[in-house]
Structures are given as structure tokens and as C-alpha cells.
Amino acid sequence: EAAGELQPPDELSIRFSHPKFVVKSLVEYLGEEQALKVIEADNKPHPTFFRINKLHKEKDRFIEKVKKNFAISFHRWFSEYFTVSPNVTPNLLPGFAEGAFTVQNPAFAIPVLLLEPKKGELTVEVGTAPGGKLSLIAEIVGEDAEIIGIDISADKLNITQKNLARLGPVKNISLILADGASLPFPDRSVERLLIDAPCSSLGVLSKFPLARYRKTDEDIERLAQIQEKLLLEGARVLKKDGVLVFSTCTLTKRENTDKILLADRFGLSVDKSYPERLEHFRLKNFFQTLPCEDGFDGCFAVRFRKLV
Known about the structure:
By secondary structure, this protein is of the alpha/beta class. It has two domains: 50-103, Alpha-Beta Plaits (2-Layer Sandwich), CATH 3.30.70; 106-306, Vaccinia Virus protein VP39 (Rossmann fold, 3-Layer(aba) Sandwich), CATH 3.40.50.150. It has nine helices and 13 strands. It has helices spanning 9-15, 20-30, 32-42, 59-69, 110-115, 132-141, 154-167, 211-214, 217-237, and strands at residues 50-52, 71-74, 81-85, 101-103, 122-126, 146-151, 173-177, 190-196, 238-248, 268-270, 282-283, 286-289, 299-306. The strands form two sheets. Strands 5, 6, 7, 8, 9, 10, 11, 12 and 13 form a nine-stranded mixed sheet that branches. Strands 2-3-1-4 form a four-stranded antiparallel sheet, with helices on one face. α7 links the parallel β6 and β7. α1 crosses α2 and α2 (20-30) crosses α3. It starts with 8 loop residues before the first helix and ends with a strand. The mean pLDDT is 94.
């Protein structure tokens, strides 16, 4: 049947091996037509993207070496990201072990670009593991800003540390073990804050197919409540006129756009300014990629500014 032919959630659930609550959540958030495209994409192989480490002194040499050994395709919207054919385990890609490249889907550049980290400012990422966004922040600002990554998991912080070390030492990055709902910062002390919120991960089911069976509708509600706590705490530590980007890798209304409705309660407002290169991904007052388009994972991001 054509992708545009709409079917009841029960039938889609059985046909595409998606729990019924997942289908209903996707339809509620995206509408039936887009939800069907996403559900179909979830059951297909998804490409592995590599991001070029712009701080690596020998990146150009390694890129040429990759081109000699693989067919390389740069992403349509983000030219610093590429795939190779045939597929390869990252450690076997020339330059990967040396830190010239890292694994990251280009969708997850959007929250960092939306944050617009600046030199001379304190930038904090909550939920920092495995470090892909944190390293991209460092690429943008260099060593002229303080960068802090927060995670609640010691194991995940260890992985992040190893990933950052492989990409090359950056003196101005610190990692802190802490709960994002109780940040170790004074009130109004952070200029830029990126919250990579815990979520149901419905935007990355092609990579983690079993995740669809490990989540429940109750999990979505629980995660949405955790996200509110992270936003409240983020608003506390954010300076007046500071920027907060809230991001997930899921596709549910409760975990994404419902957070925009809470902005006033936390002293935040949706910031309508954004880099021009992100215009293609803007939907009203937020930004969204879908796993059925351009090799992207599903990523949601919204930019807030502190009012008081």
C-alpha cells in the first residue's frame, strides 16, 4: 500500500510492530500521514553519520584518506557530516581513532546551533553523555569560554570523558556528576543552557528497535514530569536574558511541544531569534527533524530566553 493510505492505529501497530500507544502518540503529534512515514522509516536501516572534528589539525588529510577507501556522501543540509559506503565500524574508519571524526547524527547539531554558544560566556549542557553536543560546542567557541557538561550517571560521564579525550584535549571543558533537577550553580549564573532531556526516544527507533517495547504510556507521563523539573531548575540558574534550549530525541506532544506551554510559569519566553541556516527545520516556534527525512534522527528543539 502507498505510504499515504491511512490505516487505523490497531492495524498499523500490528503491521509495523509498534505498540499501540506509540502509534497513537505519533499520530497525535505528527498527524496520520507523517506518523505513517515515521513508522515505516523505523523499520528500515538508518545511516551512520560521522561529524568532522574542525579542531583536528589533520582532518583534511584523514578526509582524503577516507575518500580513497570509501564512497563518501556529505549531508544535504550539514556539510560537516558524512556517511560512507560500504558501512564501516567507526573504529575502522581512517582518522576516527585519531579524533578526526565522531559519530553523531546531523539532527543533533540543531540544538547546539540554536543555542548559539558565545566566546566569553558560561555554557552548560544537562544530560551531556556521550559528549557529541558538548564537543560541538567546544568547536564553535574554542577555548575562550567555560563549558560544563552535567550528567546524573557516572558510567555515562566516563564514556563522555573517553570520547572527549579521543577528539583532543580541550582545557575549558569540565564534567560534573549531578542531577539536572538540582544543579550546582547559583541563581542567575549561566548564560547558555542546553537541556538534553530524558525522553521516550521515539525519534531513534530505527537505531534502537527494542526501545519501542521497553517504554509505556506511563513512562511518557513520568518523563514529561522529569522534564518539567529540569526546565524549572534550568530557569533558576539562567541569567536574565540568558538562552535555554530544550531538546529531545522523541516525537510526542507531552514531551515536546507541551513544554512550550509551560514557559511563562518558569519565567521563560520562546525566543524567536535563530540562525538562518535552521529556517528549513522551523515549525512555528520550534524546530523538528523526522527519521523519514534526509537520514535524520527525530530531534525536537525549542529556544527560550529568561525574562527576569
